[in-house]
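seq:
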Amino acid sequence: MKERVKIGYIGLGRRGSYVLKNNISQMEDVDIIAICDLSERKMELACEIITKAGKPEPIMTTDYRE
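struct:
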C-alpha cells in the first residue's frame, strides 16, 4: 500500500507559488490539505492550482498557527 503525504503549505509568494505549481501539486502521493498566506488573492490562486491538479480544495488561512 502506498502511503500519502499530507502537508500544510505556508508562503505563496513568487518562489512559493512556483514550487507549488511546478512540483508539489504534481506529486501523485502528496495531498495539500492547508495553505497559508497573508494575501487572500494568493491563496485563491494557489487553490486554483491545486484543484486543477485534481486534488481536493485545501483549507485556507492567514494564520500559520491554525
